[in-house]
Fold these 2 entries.
Entry 1:
Amino acid sequence: MALVPSGAEERAKARAGMGVATTALNRRAPLLRQSAMFVLACGLVLSLLAWHMTARRTDEEASRSFQQASQHITRLVEERMLRALDLVAGFRGLFSVHRHVSRAEFREHFNSLHLPERFPGVIAIQYAPLVPAAEKAAFEAQVRADTSLDPHGYPDYAIHPAGERDFYIPVLYNEPMAGNEAAFGHDNTAEPSRRRAMERTRDTGEPIASPPLTLLQGAAGFVIRHAVYRRDAPLWTEAQRRAAFLGQVSGVFRTTDLLSSLLEEHLKGYRIRVEDRGDAREGQGPAALLFDSQAAHASPASLLGAPQRLEAPLTVAGRVWVVEVSRPATLPHLAPLPVAVLLSGVALTLVVRWLLLGMARHSDRTAEIAARLAHEATHDALTGLPNRLLLEQRLKEALETAKQDQTRLALLFIDLDRFKAINDTLGHEAGDVVLRQVALRLRGALRPTDTVARLGGDEFVVLLSVPTGNLWRGVADRILALITQPMTYGEHRLSVGASLGAALYPEHGTDAAALLRHADDSMYAAKRGASLATAPPAPSSRAG
């Protein structure tokens, strides 16, 4: 029969087993550390390589998409302008087909096109005939007597702006009339740039676009003018065209409306600018802005550098337009996909290390959360000052210390004046600025051993240890002086005051509730303007 091992033998075997296990762990630990370092090095290298390759592919794809979008946007602008030219040419065709086009026929053709729905950005379509200076009065009288559309005629019609000129090109047909009344009767020869555009379309027979200008309708845009000639007249030479010139058809366009709806799907990802670079015959000149998709909120300079831009020139009715498409500067390595690849590789590489340090990180996070929660529970979220809970705790501790050491305390209760008016007129953000400024000034007026707390709203409490005399009065005066100093909020200069009441230990109470109550009563007495003789039996002051 085998003997049962004694207790000593069992303990010896256990120690031997533990020794073997410890030796195995000691031998394996360096290997694991070396393996972890090898995995870390290889994993980081592979992660960085994959990150870089993915970033390159992402950047190449983004550049291709940007180029395609730029080309598509340019085509859209070009097609829209061709439609605008066709629109003006269509109205010009009325005068080529008919020897005389009446006001009613002009309006009927305009209404049949349903332009407000089908062609956003068209402000007006107009016809302006050539009126020699000698015929001006007769022409105006004829228009005033025209009752073809309005039974009252146009009794106020006059060619404007006033002035003697050798001939006039006044707007006669003006559709729609509503909203375009300022253009009715306007002479296109009165202003040099408009006259030059008229003369060029007259001499060439081609549609001519104006530079960017402020329209008579009060908007920024441009005008396309196309000369109208006498039917069956020879138009081979400039002299023949001048002799046959009858007037012009004009299309008035607001650039923002013309292009915004067309480019709507591209406006979020890119900034689109259309610039006029001058007369096509003279080559590109200084840029004049026609359209900017982000004109109202231009982007601040980026730390990543200048945005990427692509430009494409267009010839539009004798003008050179440049369509510029830009996108914000980016770092392809920080794009979502490359970052995801990098983070995934690094995360897999660090998994062993993360497991080992997980408990420590968890403990740190727990302590940090606990400290933050403790701070939030005892401090005001807006000003960072102690709240009522922490004030009561410190006041209780201060009372106990004062009783033991037979010292005195002062409790100052502060209520801001004119704060509600600022909050109501300028909003809560302005009120928050005032409260934070007051809190900052209160901190600066006190010693590190003193306590300043916010009870809520516009009420603050200061707890002072006052070893002798009326030291608290000097602190109170300094606080009131600091609070009444003006504050700046935007363009506003704010000024608040404060009503202050005080309670002293042990004169006005030996417990927290009594001191707070007395200080509160004293503050309200100060707010009512009571003198020291009529106020509650506590020192009080008022400012503001």
Entry 2:
Amino acid sequence: MSGTVGQSVADNGGDQAGEPGIRLSSGAEHLPGGRTELRLGADGALLVERVTGTGRDLRQGRVDAALVQRVLTAIRAAAPGLSPAEAPAPPVRTLLVTGLLPAGDTLWADGTSAPLPDVAAALEALLGQVLKPAAAAPLPGALVRLDGRGPDLADGTPQALAAIGSVQGRPAYALAEPGQGFGLADLETQGSLGGSGAESGMLPTAVALGTVAGRELFAVGGEDGAVQVWDAVSGSLLHGTSGGEGAQVVAAGVVQGVALAFSGGREGEVRAWRAEDGRALGLLSVAGQGAAALCYARCGDLHLVAAAGDDAVVRVWDVNSGERLHLLVGHRDRVAALAVLSLGDQAVLASSGLDGEIRLWDLATGQPVSVLTGHSATVTGLAFLDLAERPVLASSSLDGTVRTWDVYDGTALHGWSAGGGWLTSAAAVELAGSPAVVTGDENGRVALWDPATGALLGSCDAPGAVNALAVAQLDGRPVLVVGHGDGTVRVRDAATRAELYVLGPDGGPVSSVAVAAAEEGQVLVCGTAAGAVRCHALRDGVQLSVPTPHTGPVSRLAFAEPAGTDTPAALVSAGADGTVRVRNALDGTPLLQLMAHQDGVTAMALGEADGHRLLATAGAECTVRLWDGTRGNAGPVLGGLPQPAEALVFGALDGRPVVIAGSADGTVLVWDVRDGRQTATLTGGGTAVRSLVCQDLDGEVLLAAGDQSSTLRLWHLASGTLLNEAELDRVPLAIAFGEAGLHVVGAGGATLL
């Protein structure tokens, strides 16, 4: 659960009276960062709460027993603390342990004789990882499992949305209202021009209506991160993406010569995509349970996908027909890893997870083959290999060991310690005709091992915990694909461990990687902790598609005309995940991506200055940023806002381009685009500005602003003089100057002033 308002952590378990647990608290409600609390139960139950002056954000989930044990061990070795009765008042940071220590309930606090022990840093890292899933994650993804979706909009309340443009050359508007779907209407006659009903299955969070490259287009962004674009005249869908639904795990395979990507997340169904262009192909039902592990396999003429997750059940489908073939039951807790060994017309599936067991299944019949026990913690990685002409399974675990197993006999062959630390993933590779086991760990180390002896063959290190591993062939040599907690993907020569290239962070810590060997070239598919799916050409890392452009609600949409002969018309989308994505408006091809604001984009506008496309974005940190809208180069960061901007617009004043922001407290600020200088401050009515429009009328520049209290204000921009103020019967969601006056669109439709 996330984005919950009005519910305290104390009402949801954790370290309530009588329940053992750990609580880390810091800050205060009235401070800019608010007050945060992390509560960790002895059983791994996790609750994180952030309370600010504008609302409450609550996340819950579970952490692995290995992390709980490490934290408790460190706390028991810490210097003595204080009595809970000695707790200082907020905003002092405190660590409280209840019911877990021989000395009784104990508290540590900054600025006292008992400062917080070093283990508080690990808890702070966990707190940040939960609240900011798109940021670099120091803890391995295998340790943390959140319930439900990732971050939602601050108050979680659906709002009406509107945009003004044209359809068939006539003024028109787009309107989306909670519970009523979305649609287009004539601005002057109010006649409907088409749309959806409430049953469309999409909860709109952004709309845009624009004319680009001679086409009138309509776009809708959804609460789940989906973006759809229609021809506004014909009503035909031109292109679109599906929501991420927390798509943290991926698989890849080639079916009928086409590279496919499969993705699953904390909830929802398993999705299938064309890797090359991101086109959605359909769903594989897991009854909304999501998936923590995915695997593609070829078994004779069948193309199979297996998925498993929190319900401890493994599901297997025929990809071509979508038919579910098997429901494999036996695990006692969440399944975290899957691997398949193809043996001609037969195949063996291996599954493992939090119960520490490895189960082998006959995929032809769905029957269990054997249960392998020996690990003392979560089994995080599985890989099949050939050793002395017999199939062998290798496994890695949070207990820090690697083990090998005879597949035919179901017996243990060998086991060894990897040298300390949590092992997070495993793969198998052949080097000079001999097999090797590959492991990744919490410290960013990738190691290769002789499966027969456990001898270390070589290793390499990189920043960020290793969360995922895959092996592929590139130009006849084996390569390792390594996904890290800092969001990078590193492709290495397996024999030398030399780094071939690095893909930068995009969509959060990498949680899963897979490779498909298609005819047109191998495709690398990545899933991230924040829910993004990315597809790249393995050879050089060039991005092919982004099936899930945003990992949270789409906060703003806008169309842009072509910027010169080499830059096509664009659709720009901004999200609560902090990213801005630029796509070809007509076919959806990805053009540009930016990490604009870490805590989410609250407003966005497109403009032009000196022949260049400009982009302005606003964020929760009360700044406005300017960007080159074609190349993505960052420009000035504009400050001075008392509250985050909720509306932005470009204009011109005395021949110079300006950007104008309307904030959540009604204040309107104006900056010069060329030098970033603030040129004006206009005082509003104390409620959020929902819409802005700037217009030059006979040489005089006017600014109209509509706010949440249903008030419309009209200013003379050069002098800052308030010309008019009108109370309306609706919140002005979109405004446009017309020959007969001001057109205002709000819930219920349009009106003329």
